[in-house]
Amino acid sequence: MLFHYYRMITALNLPFSLAGAVLAWIATDYDVYICFLTFGMGWLTFGFLLALIFFKLRYNHVYYFYYNKGYSPRWLVIWSYVINFCAAVLLFCGYKLINSYVTPA
Fold it and tell me: N or C: at which end does the chain have fewer Cβ atoms within 10 angstroms?
């Protein structure tokens, strides 16, 4: 049940975060590290907030469904943010790990 809400928020969050990452990638002369960092930060901050705002505007009636299942809107937002934070940390650590093997010391 919670993953359904998370998927809906992520579907709204992903385009904003990718757009910010692509713009940062182009603005920094195609620096991949900045692209990943901007994507992760956008996913946790700006994109997530925009996704919450658009979800509230478009799908406000869906909160009644989750409320009847016992989930408050605050709990849904916190749970989604924790999942996003864990995914962003894994993305950042994965990039650092791959970059340490690919880039000569």
Answer: C
Residue pair 75/44 in contact by the 8 Å Cβ criterion = no
Structure-block tokens of residue 52: 């919450």
Task: Quote the percentage of the chain above a pLDDT of 90.
Answer: 65
Provide the token pair at 56: 């509230």
Contact 83, 12 (CB under 8 A): no
* CA dist list (Å): 83 to 10, 56, 95: 10, 19, 18
Where b means 16+ CB within 10 Å and e means fewer, 25-43 reads beeeeeeeeebbbbbbbbb
Q: SS3 for 69?
A: coil
How far apart are alpha carbons 98 and 84 in whole angstroms? Answer: 21
